[in-house]
Write a structure and sequence with these properties.
With 331 residues, the protein is an alpha/beta fold. The chain is built from 13 helices and ten strands.
Length: 331
């Protein structure tokens, strides 16, 4: 065979062999990540269905399925201030197929409320991305004698310790304690497993009031099952324009937001962590995601893992300061 013809045949074969060799030389984690995800993903949520965290998990789960073709199963593990859900995450294989969708309560506020946590939200968990932020509402039963926030405050001052509030998480508890501190009140805590249970208790008149993120309370307020006295923001919200913000209601400067973000176990390989973060960030940037949250009175929180790590650290310090100022005794 002529040498020139032999070279024309062998050169492509050598190139193909080189490519195959390079693929075999890839680190195992990188080679695995190229096919990730290749099976169903589980989102663990520390609250019951109906919370803003659960709503976010289900929305992002649907969009992630559309992007990857893999099913996303949302598993609600409420109770014990989110400890049950975090333990479930840390007990699962750290392979990227189990994601924790948590809120400011489990990812920041718990640090301020508990002397010793069964997990460290900064070292046991690795951030993927932030998802959403929503202002909270102060809500009361529909037949409550308190028609305004000022009336509620006046009644609480007149009879210290008589009124109570429902708290579906550590975050809501600390918001209510911040209100106690700011307005010099003594409204007592009644704990619940999640926002939906807390709001059911308020709607039935079992408790006097609650803080709730707007995404969880919006439909109940619109349907007349709850009365919203004020929104803990610096302005009114477009979805409930008749509800005054705290500055208008007599407590200027008081704001309280909930936020939701996604994390994996810290031991998850970087390649899978990065792939998940990129997919979730892609969902954040979709116009329909912004529209979805706007309809609920919330907003998308853009930012990947690095931004979330910095934001989480700042939130932990913020809630520590609030807990000290409100003289909340750690459990």
């Amino acid at each position: 065979m002529p040498l020139k013809k032999f070279k024309s045949i062998i050169s492509p074969l050598l190139a193909l062999a080189a490519l195959c060799s390079a693929a075999f030389l890839l680190p195992a984690s990188q080679a695995f990540a190229q096919d990730f995800p290749s099976k169903a993903i589980k989102f663990i949520v520390p609250f019951p269905p109906g919370s803003g965290t659960d709503t976010s998990a289900r929305y992002f789960g649907r969009k992630l399925t559309e992007l990857t073709g893999q099913a996303v199963v949302v598993e609600n593990r409420p109770g014990a201030n989110g400890f049950i859900a975090v333990r479930a995450l840390l007990a699962a294989p750290a392979d990227g197929y189990t994601v924790f969708v948590g809120s400011n309560s489990t990812l920041a506020v718990n640090v301020a409320l508990f002397k010793k946590l069964p997990y460290d939200p900064q070292t046991d968990l690795a951030p993927l991305t932030m998802m959403m932020r929503a202002p909270t509402l102060v809500v009361v039963p529909p037949n409550s004698p308190h028609k305004t926030l000022a009336e509620l405050i006046s009644a609480a001052r007149a009879q210290p310790g008589k009124l109570n509030y429902a708290a579906g998480s550590a975050g809501y508890q600390l918001m209510a304690e911040a209100l106690n501190d700011s307005a010099r009140l003594d409204i007592r805590n009644v704990p619940f497993k999640g926002a939906s249970e807390a709001l059911t208790a308020v709607a039935s008149g079992t408790v006097d009031m609650a803080f709730s993120d707007i995404t969880a309370a919006y439909e109940l307020v619109k349907g007349g099952k709850l009365r919203a006295l004020a929104v803990a923001s610096d302005r009114r919200t477009a979805v409930l324009p008749a509800v005054p913000y705290f500055g208008e209601a007599g407590l200027p400067g008081f704001t309280a937001y909930v936020w939701v973000g996604a994390m994996v176990a810290a031991k998850t390989p970087k390649a899978e962590t990065d792939k998940l973060a990129a997919l979730l960030s892609q969902i954040e940037r979709m116009p329909e995601t912004r529209e979805f949250y706007e309809r609920l009175g919330a907003e998308v929180m853009n930012g990947g893992a690095d931004e979330m790590r910095k934001f989480q650290a700042a939130e932990i310090e913020l809630w520590k300061r609030i807990a000290v100022k409100a003289k909340v005794e750690q459990e």
